[in-house]
Amino acid sequence: MKTGYAFMDCNVIYGDAKKGTDSHMTILIDENGLIQEIGKASAVTVPTHFQTIDCSGKYVMPGLINAHVHLFADGKPFTLSASEGLLNFAFHHILDTRLGRNMLKRRMKKNALTALHSGNNDA
After folding, report:
1. Among 5, 63, 2, 1, which Cα is nearest to 38's?
2. 37-72 burial, b if ≥16 CB within 10 A, otherwise e?
3. DSSP letter, residue 96
4. Of 21, 23, 62, 80, which cross-links 15 as Cys (Cβ 3.0–4.6 Å)?
5. 77 to each of 73, 74, 80, 86, 107, how far by Cα in Å?
6. Number of C-beta neighbours around residue 8 at 10 A
């Protein structure tokens, strides 16, 4: 049976410079793995069927998924065994042309959309 979780008494880092950090917080995660509620521990009612996890002294923050990406790559591993001269040639004679820039823009757009759609589809 799937269950929800309650992260109890944690410090929440919001990832927003204006918001800062809140302490003594409870985070409820529903049976589908989605955040149901975040609030002061004293103000959040934890459903009886949720599994509680003591997070005293711990910090919870947003996931930093793909915090650093190169949009010209699609995320698949590859090896590059080209000389600097070949790379310079490819840039100056292929990518640094109108056709090359258009190809690169299309590839970057496709990879950016793939990265965006890899998140929560319910949003």
Report:
1. 5
2. ebeeeeebebeeebeeeebeeeeeeeeeeeeeeebe
3. T
4. 62
5. 9, 9, 10, 21, 16
6. 20
* Amino acid (one-letter) located at 111: N
- CA 107 to chain CA mean position, Å: 21
Task: List pLDDT tens digits, range 32-79.
Answer: 989 999 999 999 999 999 999 999 999 998 776 666 677 777 666 666
Residue among 16, 31, 20 nearest 6 (CA)? 31
pLDDT averaged over the chain?
83
Q: What six digits make up the tokens of 49?
A: 């069927």
